[in-house]
Amino acid sequence: xxxxxxxxxxxxxxHGQVRCEGAKNxxxxxxxxxxLASEPVHLQNVPQLTDIATQSKLLRRLGLAVSIERTxxxxxxxxxxxxDAQPVVAPESCVRQMRASFCVLGPLLARxxxxxxxxxxxxxxxxxxxxxxxxxxxxxxxxxxxxxxCVVAEARRLTGATIELSGPxxxxxxxxxxxxxxxxxxxxxxxxxxxxxxxxxxxxxxxLTALGAKIEGLGTSTLRIExxxxxxxxxxxxxxxxxxxxxxxxxxxxxxxxxxxxxxxPDHLQTVLEKxxxxxxxxxxxxxRVSIAATGPVQPASVIAEPFPGLPTDVQAQWTALMSxxxxxxxxxxxxxxxxxxxxxxxxxxxxxxxxRDDIATxxxxxxxxxxxxxxxxxxxxxxxVLAGLAADGPTxxxxxxxxxxxxxxxxEKLRRLGAQIxxxxxxxxxxx
Length: 433
What we know:
Elements: E1 5-9, E2 17-19, H1 24-33, E3 41-46, H2 50-61, E4 64-69, E5 76-82, H3 92-95, H4 105-112, E6 114-118, H5 131-139, E7 143-147, E8 150-154, E9 162-164, E10 166-167, E11 170-171, H6 173-183, E12 189-193, H7 199-211, E13 214-216, E14 223-226, E15 234-237, H8 242-254, E16 258-262, H9 270-278, E17 282-285, E18 289-293, E19 303-305, H10 313-323, E20 329-334, H11 343-349, E21 354-357, E22 360-364, E23 373-375, H12 379-391, E24 395-399, H13 402-405, H14 411-417, E25 421-425
């Protein structure tokens, strides 16, 4: 993969408006669930991301035709249709690249009676076991074993059961997606307790319902799923990406500017907006937009990243960047993923004063950051470094920005629309779509 970097001249407040893309974290499990459909699936508002390209490649290897319609003015529209229902082995090259590819396990097992899926990869952000996936599918009657780094699951017919999905760090989002997707074709009724509440899980449930699944309790921690014999096709529009929206709002906040983000779901951002107000920003909310104005000093606001409706772990790094400029001391704790603080060392290279112990970062705010060369280690860490570079005095170079392209559609272009001085060196790698 070619090295890609951003060169940023910081210190300029951002102003203007931009629109939010469809949610990556909703698109990937929904694309995987298209394996369940007996008729074509049409997805709207699909973001142009390398993770979408990776999932498309994976599904093609599993016998799906994946066609994409793109225009300059509109988000992608994608059609997925099963052409060959025989493949059951997910290619390691795809699953190792991102954890969400593991979400093919449940749909493959339910529809094709067998699945061979490598243990997942993705960003290096701490321990992320698959024990809840295993536990849930086993409760539905699957026979599972580990062979050469792959989960091998088989079942003549899955049968409904009552399943607890909470682990030591709370409910599993991908675990809920896998078990829910498998249960819709199981015989009888499945009750999922302590299911993930994330909007992306609700969106997956709405998609499955559109296919003909019978699911009650979406948006609550208890789901009741009555299995059906077969699912059809559907047309489904993905929800907006709440993580991209939060990142854009934080970009305006860290530069002491103002911005309006369009095509959002404010109800998916409530905790982020509450914390932005606590940090001194003025926030105005409309039906499908959020505006922010941040002119005064950044106020220290401690946060805990936790499952929805808490502050998303995927916003933790960006929040840490904002708090590095706070007028005081605060803490950032991550209860979702252990070790998700690789961005701290790079923020400190920019002049931040942050110390980590266990899963807590203690931040002593500094008056300013100074530009230098930093390297991104994962998707959200890269966003944090870009935000810090926008606020820093002088030039900043952010290396390995291919991580960012996994989850943000040409973020540099959106930031330039808001007035940022940011230049991409190297091409985005979304062209594989």
